[in-house]
Specification:
Blueprint lengths: L5 E9 L6 H9 L6 E2 L12 E2 L13 H5 L3 H17 L11 E6 L5 H14 L8 H5 L3 H10 L5 E2 L7 H14 L5 E8 L4 H9 L29 E9 H6 L6 E10 L12 H14 L8 E3 L8 H13 L7 E3 L2 H4 L6 H15 L1 E2 L15 E2 L4 E2 L4 E8 L3 E8 L4
Parallel strand pairs: 4-5, 4-6, 9-10, 9-14, 10-12
Antiparallel strand pairs: 1-7, 1-8, 2-3, 6-7, 8-15, 11-13, 14-15
Helix pairs in contact: 3-6, 7-13, 10-11
Protein name: 3-oxoacyl-[acyl-carrier-protein] synthase 2
GO cellular component, one term: cytosol
GO molecular function: 3-oxoacyl-[acyl-carrier-protein] synthase activity
């Protein structure tokens, strides 16, 4: 690492397991599933009828109804999370520091809700009947844009859109900007809400989704021999990154230190990784190299592990390639078993959970791992485990062959 040291000083989530981090965390430790029948639309003609839906979210707790109506759901989640994040971190944006506070929120698909509703209006009533806010509401960067507006953050304001790696890319590049002195703090992570008829249909025709409709809570089963596809989820996960100097100057509680970020491309296929997981391995290697640490220091990996037949074992092979003899000693977990795959929001939520794990010295379980894949001979945590984690790694990979990893270190002053 060169330049400024970068630390984590705040966390927030909205997930299918709870509309705040503490509720989500408690339910994760209890091994509860957030997956159930889809209620947002009629699934009669759909192969998949289940998803990990956010439950009971009320945007008016965080904004007025007029503001909420001018946001797609993924943006509402981001604004709500950003307000919880400011409360958690104790960070105050003022006229004196606003220009040095950035916003970077990854979104994979954007406003599918808005697209579907307005397309239907246009077909039924003509092109003049769609909302004049149609374009600004649906675009992926509006999550970061609205958070910037609501909080008054006037530093760099952008969106990373890299499929299911979007949220972790945002964290990685926000870390890089602070390290290089381009900002003093960043609100970063990922948000997504695409449990719509078009979203489910699109992944169904790819045969990417689980069709275990008769047993929703057991449908998402990363690393299990009987996995049959991922379960779509929704939600948001944000963290506040600051330079160590800024955090210390305000007396912030420091949760962890970001010490490495790596990214790579498969250059192989638009929707499938190479069987050997080469690109995944290269992103992990690059992360360890930037941190200037040996693979043997890593105690925990929060895996991408989506519960797809091909992808899970590619990640296992990549971990074995990078960590060698140390690989079986690493405690792995797959959060998607609990609440599904949040697409662009996944890396944000899962990295927040990883930091929470480091702070609490607890690894949440991977549920539904009943018959491990024959290749899955690593240590996957299946019951909440007490574990000291000096270093922990988060992985996210996505369509287009995009891969990234972030390494966190327990803060030691």
């Amino acid at each position: 690492m060169i330049g400024n040291r970068v630390v984590v000083t705040g966390l927030s989530t909205i997930t299918p397991l709870g509309n705040d981090l503490e509720t989500t965390w408690r339910n994760m430790l209890a091994g509860k599933s957030g997956v159930g029948p889809i209620t947002q639309f009629d699934t009669t003609n759909f192969a998949t009828k289940i998803a990990g839906s956010v439950k009971g979210f009320d945007p008016e707790q965080y904004m007025d109804i007029k503001q909420a109506r001018r946001m797609d759901t993924f943006t509402q989640y981001a604004v709500a999370c950003s307000k919880m994040l400011m409360d958690d971190s104790g960070f105050e944006i003022t006229p004196d520091n606003a220009d040095r506070v950035g916003t970077m929120i990854g979104v994979g698909l954007g406003g599918l809700h808005t697209i579907e509703v307005n397309h239907s209006k246009m077909l039924q009533s003509g092109p003049k009947r769609i909302t004049p806010f149609f374009i600004p509401v649906l675009i992926a960067n509006m999550a970061a844009g609205q958070v910037s507006i609501f909080l008054g953050a006037r530093g760099p304001n952008l969106c990373t859109t890299s499929a299911c790696a979007s949220g972790l890319h945002a964290i990685g590049y926000a870390y890089t900007d602070i390290m290089l002195g381009r900002a003093d703090a960043f609100i970063c992570g990922g948000s997504e809400s695409t449990i719509t008829s078009l979203g489910i249909a699109g992944f169904n025709v790819m045969k990417a989704l689980s069709t275990r409709n008769d047993d929703p809570e057991r449908a998402s089963r990363p690393f299990d021999r009987d996995r049959d596809g991922f379960v779509m989820g929704e939600g948001c996960g944000l963290m506040l990154l600051e330079s160590l100097e800024t955090a210390k100057a305000r007396g912030a509680k420091i949760l962890a230190e970001v010490v490495g970020f790596g990214a790579s491309a498969d250059a192989y296929h638009m929707a499938a990784p190479p069987e050997n997981g080469d690109g995944m391995a290269r992103s992990m290697r690059a992360t360890l190299k930037e941190a200037n640490v040996e693979p043997s220091v890593v105690a925990h990996i929060n895996c991408h592990a989506t519960s797809t037949p091909a992808g899970d074992m590619c990640e296992v092979r990549a971990i074995k390639t990078v960590f060698g003899e140390h690989a079986p000693k690493i405690a792995l977990t797959a959060n998607k078993s609990l609440f599904g795959h949040l697409l662009g929001g996944a890396g944000g939520v899962e990295t927040v959970i990883m930091v929470k794990s480091m702070v609490e010295s607890l690894v949440p379980p991977t549920i539904n791992l009943e018959n491990p894949d024959p290749e899955m001979d690593l240590d996957c945590v299946t019951a909440t485990r007490k574990l000291d984690m000096p270093y922990a790694l988060s992985n996210s990979f996505g369509f287009g062959g995009t891969n990234c990893s972030v390494l966190m270190k327990k803060f030691d002053g």
